[in-house]
C-alpha cells in the first residue's frame, strides 16, 4: 500500500459539521431513459432517473457542494431544499466521462454566468478542461476556478475519524482524458465513500473491505447487475464490477458492514431500477442497499 497523506479539501468546502448528503441522481452517464433505446426498460411508464450526483448540504451555513456536474444539472439543482442558494458553493468532479462533467457548461455565460465557483478535480482533468472548448472558456471568463489535486498516491481512508473534510484518491477506470477520482466525505459524526466508477475491485490497490471499515456509508459502482444486460456487447470494453461480483466479494463481511453499501450509477438496463424486481430483492435480501434519488443521509 502507498503511504502518502490524504489531500483534505476542508477550507474550500467549508464547515462539514452537521452536514447531510443527498442523492440527486443514480443513473449511469446517459441517464434513463437512454437516448434511442427502444428496449422495455426505456418505454413510457418505466422508471426514470437522473445521472449520478450527490449534494453535500451544510444546514449550519446554508451552503452546499455538488459532486459531479451531470447533463441533468438543471433539474438536480432544483432538488436542493429551500433556503439554500441556487448554485453550489463548490463542485467536485470524478473524471472526464460525459455524465460527470458536461453539466459545467451551464455555469457559462450562455446560462447562469456563475462567478468563480471552485471545482475540485485531478490534474489531468484540469488540463482537459483548460485545453478544450467550450470548457476552457469557463475558466477564462471566471465562471469557475479549477483546483486540481494530485491524488495518485493517496490512501482511500484515514484512521482519525475526527478529521472532517473531503478526501480524494484515484481508482482504476478507463482514463482516456483524465484520471478517475473517488471520494471520502467525512463529517463530524459519520463519513461516506463515493466511487461511482471503477473497473474491477481486484484492479484497485486497496481492499474494499478495509475501506468499508473506515466509513459509515458507501455509494459504489453498480452500473450492471450482471454480465447478461448487454447481449452482443463486449463487456471487457466497458468494465465495471457487476453487482453480483461485488456482493460475492463482500459476502463474508458482517451484516452491519454490508448495510453500509448503497449501489449507485445504474445503466438503463439494470434491473435494480424496478424496486420489485427479483434482482432488487436479491440485493436487499443479501443485506445490501440500493441508492434511490432524493434520499438524505446524516453526516
Q: Your description of this structure?
A:
The chain contains 9 helices and 13 strands. Strands 6-5-4-3-2-1-13 form a 7-stranded mixed beta sheet. Strands 7-8-9-10-11-12 form a 6-stranded mixed beta sheet. The longest helix is centred in the middle third of the chain and has 9 residues, at 123-131. Helix content is 17%, strand content 20%. The radius of gyration is 18 Å and the shape is globular. With 299 residues, the chain is of the alpha/beta class. A hairpin with a 4-residue loop joins strand 8 and strand 9. It has one domain (10-298): Metallo-beta-lactamase, Chain A. It has helices spanning 10-13, 73-77, 98-101, 123-131, 135-140, 208-212, 243-249, 255-258, 278-285, and strands spanning 20-25, 53-58, 63-67, 90-92, 117-121, 144-148, 165-170, 181-186, 191-195, 217-221, 261-264, 289-290, 296-298.
Amino acid at each position: 500500500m502507498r503511504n502518502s497523506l490524504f489531500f483534505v479539501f476542508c477550507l474550500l468546502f467549508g464547515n462539514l459539521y452537521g452536514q447531510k448528503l443527498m442523492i440527486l441522481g443514480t443513473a449511469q452517464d446517459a441517464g434513463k431513459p437512454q437516448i434511442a433505446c427502444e428496449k422495455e426498460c426505456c418505454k413510457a411508464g418505466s422508471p426514470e432517473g437522473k445521472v449520478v450526483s450527490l449534494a453535500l448540504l451544510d444546514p449550519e451555513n446554508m451552503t452546499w457542494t455538488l459532486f459531479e456536474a451531470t447533463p441533468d444539472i438543471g433539474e438536480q439543482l432544483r432538488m436542493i431544499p429551500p433556503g439554500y442558494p441556487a448554485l453550489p458553493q463548490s463542485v467536485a468532479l470524478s473524471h472526464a466521462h460525459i455524465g460527470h462533467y458536461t453539466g459545467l457548461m451551464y455555469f457559462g455565460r450562455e446560462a447562469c454566468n456563475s462567478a468563480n465557483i471552485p471545482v475540485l478535480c485531478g490534474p489531468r482533468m484540469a488540463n482537459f478542461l483548460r485545453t478544450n472548448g467550450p470548457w476552457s472558456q469557463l475558466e477564462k471568463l471566471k465562471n469557475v476556478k479549477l483546483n486540481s489535486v494530485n491524488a495518485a498516491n493517496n490512501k482511500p481512508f484515514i484512521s482519525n475519524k475526527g478529521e472532517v473534510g473531503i478526501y480524494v484518491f484515484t481508482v482504476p477506470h478507463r482514463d482516456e482524458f483524465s484520471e478517475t477520482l473517488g471520494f471520502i466525505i467525512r463529517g463530524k459524526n459519520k463519513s461516506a465513500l463515493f466511487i461511482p466508477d471503477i473497473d474491477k475491485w481486484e484492479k484497485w490497490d486497496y481492499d474494499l473491505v478495509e475501506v468499508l471499515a473506515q466509513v459509515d456509508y458507501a455509494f459504489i459502482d453498480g452500473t450492471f447487475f450482471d454480465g447478461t444486460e448487454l447481449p452482443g456487447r463486449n463487456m471487457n470494453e466497458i468494465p465495471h464490477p457487476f453487482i453480483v461480483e461485488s456482493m460475492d466479494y463482500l459476502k463474508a463481511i458482517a451484516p452491519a458492514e454490508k448495510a453500509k453499501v448503497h449501489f449507485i450509477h445504474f445503466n438503463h438496463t439494470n434491473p435494480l431500477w424496478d424496486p420489485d424486481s427479483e434482482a432488487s430483492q436479491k440485493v436487499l435480501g443479501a443485506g445490501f442497499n440500493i441508492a434511490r434519488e432524493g434520499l438524505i443521509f446524516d453526516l
